[in-house]
Design goal:
The chain has 224 residues and is an alpha+beta fold. The chain has a domain at 29-138 and 184-221: Pnp Oxidase, Chain A (Roll), CATH 2.30.110. It has helices spanning 13-27, 36-48, 92-99, 127-136, 139-147, 157-171, and strands spanning 56-62, 68-74, 77-79, 82-88, 102-109, 114-124, 182-196, 204-209, 218-221. Strands 1, 2, 3, 4, 5, 6, 7, 8 and 9 form a 9-stranded antiparallel β-sheet that branches. Helix 5 packs across helix 6 (157-171).
């Protein structure tokens, strides 16, 4: 088998026409909205009914030298202020965000054939927000946050299990507070783009942009 055999063939004319008919029946006409967060909420509700992990998103960061990096994380909250995720602050992404507090997100919902791209400045969440979310996590997940030296070299699984056991013994049945090295970030968007699949690669693209966090959103349509 050649490597090209692993890649699906380009859709045929009939495939595109069939897909377009289904998309028109499900989605109607051209994308339109005034508030990007309201549109995102609508799409997320639909994704929750069809996707196994609807809040999964690609988080792209860059280090102090501008070298890019990316990984999958989970969206934990969003509102008109931005999109929230949590992590070990001493992880690779935490160190990159400390050096360069700009990032991008991509949500891709395959079942819906939709994508949302977000770019903006990253800010720490408040201590109260971080404490509240950490307290909502399962006990073993809180223990894991203490035990894992995220992104550092690991000799083997036994080393991690030993660290978990040691941490569990340390806290016993008591309260497990949030570690100082664990918190969240809010990506405050300056641009949000909504993409919807259409036939023959002639997709719908609607972008929202603003000049500042307090600025008004402007919309523009983009060629596919």
């Amino acid at each position: 088998m050649s490597r090209s055999d692993l890649i699906p063939p380009t859709p045929s004319q009939e495939d595109y026409e069939s897909r377009e008919a289904a998309m028109q029946a499900e989605n109607g006409g051209e994308l339109a909205a005034q508030d990007p967060f309201a549109l995102f909420a609508e799409w997320l509700v639909e994704a929750r009914g069809k996707e196994p992990e609807p809040t999964a998103m690609t988080l792209a960061t860059a280090d102090a030298d501008g070298a890019p990096d990316a990984r999958m994380v989970l969206l934990k909250d969003f509102d008109a202020r931005g999109f929230v995720f949590y992590t070990n602050l001493e992880s690779v992404k935490g160190r990159q965000l400390a050096a360069n507090p700009h990032a991008a997100l991509v949500f891709y919902w395959k079942a819906l054939r939709r994508q949302v791209r977000v770019r903006g400045v990253v800010q720490p969440v408040s201590e109260e927000e971080a404490d509240e979310y950490f307290a909502s996590r399962a006990r073993d997940a809180r223990i894991g946050a203490w035990a894992s030296s995220q992104s550092r070299p690991l000799e083997g699984r036994m080393e991690l299990q030993a660290a978990i056991a040691k941490t569990a013994a340390r806290f016993g049945l008591g309260t497990i507070p949030r570690p100082e090295f664990w918190s969240g970030y809010r990506l405050v968007p300056g641009a949000i783009e909504f993409w919807r699949d259409r036939a023959f690669r002639l997709h719908d693209r609607l972008a929202f942009v603003r000049d500042s966090e307090a600025g008004a959103w402007r919309t523009r349509r983009l060629y596919p």
